[in-house]
Each structure stands twice: as C-alpha cells, then as structure tokens.
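Final report, section 2: Outcomes. Of the targets proposed, Short-chain dehydrogenase/reductase SDR is the one most frequently requested by collaborating groups, and we therefore present its record in full.
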Amino acid sequence: MSSTAKIAIVTGGSRGIGRSIVLNLAKQGVWPIFTYHTRADEARALVSEIEQNGGKAVALQLDTGKSSTFDAFADSVKAALAIWGAPGLDYLVNNAGISNHTPFAQITEEELDQQYTVNFKGVFLLTQKLLPLIQNGGSIVNITSGVTRFVNPNSSAYATFKGAVEVLTRYLAHDLGARNITVNSVAPGATATDFSGGVVRDNPEINQMVSSSTALGRPGLPEDIGGAVASLLTGETHWITGQRIEASGGLRL
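The predicted structure is given below as tokens.
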C-alpha cells in the first residue's frame, strides 16, 4: 500500500483537545498517529471511530516526560509509515501537557521539574527526534495557553514553560524556514475538558466566571480548538509561521 494522504502526529491525542484535533484532522482526510499516556481503551475507541468513517489511524503509547523512550517511539512511527507506504510526516502537533496550580511560594522542586520535563523538555526533544521524519513543506503546531498572555492565579510554573514553548516556536520557525516548514503555537483559553481536574467543565461557578469574561459568552469546547488547529494545518495558511494564535473566544480582552 502506498499512501498519498497527509500524515500527522498528535501527542496526547486520546482525550480532550487532543482528541478533537485528531478527529478534525481525520475529517480532512489526514491519517493521524496519536499518542496516549495510560488510557489504552480510549485510544482504541478513537482509532475504531476513525476507521469506521473510512479513515486510518494508529495509537501509540508515549509518556512525553520520559525522553529516554523517544528513540523507540520514533521507530514505532517509522514502522507505521512503512505499513502505510508514506514517505514521512506532514504535520506534528505537540499537544500533550500537564497542569499545575500550586502557589508560587509552595511549589516544590519536584513539581517544577515535572512541569519542565513534560511541558517544555518533552516538546523540545520530541520535535528534535521526529524532525528527520517531517517532510519539507510540513507544519508544526505547539499547543500553549492563554495564561502566557494574562495572569491566572497559581499558574506560575505552568505558564512559564508554556511561554518557553512560544519562544521555541519562533526559533523553530526561523531555523526550519529553509525547509519550508512552518511552526506556530495555538493558545487555547479556558476550555471545558478534564484538564486541571475538569474545573472549567464541571464547576458551575468557574464556568460562569469564564463565560462572563469571554467575548463570545462561553468557555471553549474541545471542537473549537480542534477545528482551529486542523484549519491552520490543512487550510491555505502556509504563509503564517512563527506566530502565537490564540483560540479563546476573546477571553479577557
């Protein structure tokens, strides 16, 4: 089998925003390779859903906080590409991440290391590892956060490393321009998922507070972000690179 479909990798693709990115890309005819951390059942269900709609997908286990596994992961990606007869990757979406809401004065070194390892180091080193597989003319999207623009209580560690990813995005856009690879960051606002314990989705008081400070009058939904990322990757947007694009419905304008 030889594929002419576009191929994407989406980290953290089995739940929430990542799942929506995977589904929206699949609707555009992209074949996604997505990662999950622990919930293999959800990953298998997503692959089945895509295949039932005529697409192709592969789910691979990955802990983006363990860079020692990235060589083996890259080998698994190469194996999937070989089975599909695909020459390489067209898109990479660095979506996997973890939250932290410990106040600055109480955050531990262990917590800080975990934020760095997953939210920045993992993005940096995984992109580096997969770069030889990304075709010239491809695109990379890094998922960051609205809290790099405005201050959110008890988000200092999380926001710091998401901000670092936005700086990395600009440097990658510069360095990879010679290969015609675009690199942008998409920054969601408060989104109703299970992230941060589902606080935006499940807490009516927080939900109302977000709604009242958002121009479009509600929190974001996973499909809002998934649609934005898929459009950036598959639309006529290749002249956009090195940019931070906020998808927040106008949160805290």
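The chain has a mean pLDDT of 95.
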